[in-house]
Amino acid sequence: MFALSQIEHDLPMPPHLLSRPLPDAIKAELERLFLDKVIANLGLCVSVYDIRSIEGGSIHPGQGCSTYKVSFRLLMFKPFNGEVLVGRIIGYDDKGLQVSLDFFSDISIPGHLMQFGTVRGPDGRWMLKTEDGDELYLDLDDEIRFLVSSTKYPRIPIDQKEDDPPFAPMQIVGSIKGDGLGLLAWWAADEEEGEEAAEQEQ
Length: 202
What we know:
- The structure is a single chain.
- The protein has helices spanning 22-34, 184-201, and strands at 2-13, 38-39, 43-59, 66-77, 84-92, 96-100, 107-110, 118-120, 126-129, 135-138, 143-152, 171-175, 182-183.
- It is an alpha+beta fold.
- The chain folds into 2 domains: 2-77, 2-Layer Sandwich (Dna Ligase, domain 1), CATH 3.30.1490; 83-192, CATH 2.40.50.140.
- A hairpin with a 5-residue loop joins strand 9 (126-129) and strand 10 (135-138).
- The radius of gyration is 23 Å and the shape is elongated.
- Keywords: DNA-directed RNA polymerase, Nucleus, Transcription.
């Protein structure tokens, strides 16, 4: 789910930071530039992990600050396809579910990637109709286990209408089509039975 990415960057240092020790000042500026930002194909920056090297410090013509060539590593949130995550349902519509991991919320689970027999109920909520005739609703704030189907990094739109949803630079598409996937409550009884059986065998 998390990975380290090494980056080299020519970093202009604002003069007001130069009163601090250079490594601390550079880390503060890197955090301002990258923290909570999405880098295409790398993921969402969670933290500046470390600084590998600092070179330069020259002042270029027309600039009032020194520029350093910095090599550093960022801790990135970048789940791989097929990885299983647990989130919380924060919304739903006719297309599917919206899920949050608390620190990242641009996750969707479309209807065609839900368990077989999942349909929308009369009130708009999605529900799973079991073979026994039970109706298991997927409600807001329910914890849900899903598999990462794909991660997209769409281009920034040139024109965006007022009624368009906010642009999301990183979008995860999830799936709950498979054993063990879906609401945690669905599988809690089976997991408890499995643990009890394992204890008895021991």
